[in-house]
Specification:
It is built from ten helices and eight strands. By secondary structure, it is α/β, with parallel strands linked by helices. Helix 1 runs parallel beside helix 10 and helix 9 packs parallel to helix 10. The longest helix is centred in the first third of the chain and has 18 residues. Bound molecules: 1,3-dihydroxyacetonephosphate.
Amino acid sequence: MARSRRPLIAGNWKMNGLRADAMNLATGVAAGVKRAGWTDREVLVCPPATLVMAVSEAVKGSGVLVGGQNCHASVSGAHTGDISAEMLGDAGASHVIVGHSERRTDCGETDTDVRHKAEAAWRAGLLPIVCIGETLAERESGRTLAVLETQLKGSVPAGATAAKLVVAYEPVWAIGTGKTPSVAEVAAAHAHIRRVLTGLIPDAGALRLLYGGSVKGSNAGELLAAGDVDGALVGGASLKADEFLAIAKAA
Ligand code: 13P
């Protein structure tokens, strides 16, 4: 892992967590991060929107960052059930995940939607984490690198820089399945992503690329050591403080 890029370990809690359990998880992560006193890595938790404010309060002073899992592209208006990037910021978030494959699949989000959401994040002063990744069918038909390139070109807004964007590579078939690409496959995908980004942003060499998909304490060390991997976006394993902290430690 290149030392010039400070690793980011992000937990995506997805649609999990009622207040009591979430508070236990948040305070557990906060205590571990505070104890470790890391200055060479960042730890982020992305709770469901209902808990962003409470979790932000609970982790205050620990160094743990808080993010949303999605935002609407608009500031406000007639969008029943949606949440703006400004609202997430107001609730204590500094980051927001956009374009997660579950939203691309469940909600039909397109690359253009994702780009607009990333721009909304900037407007609200949040750091967007843009997710991309191929399906199993795309991988098996040899289209992985082409799919990643198309997603990047469609999802990364003009004006992006390394300081204003994080990209997460999450192969759809590796999410929640216990399966991961080999370290060599991860390194190849990340190298390709960085190559494509070089044509899109001025300082692609400094941009953080996270790997996501079945990351856990036991495989974090090797996945995070792969070339061009600057952190992890963790789903299931981020729901247990000890497991999540083990991944952060491995960074
Ligand atoms: P899992 O870690 O549960 O595979 O989920 C990964 C993910 O989708 C994170 O955004």
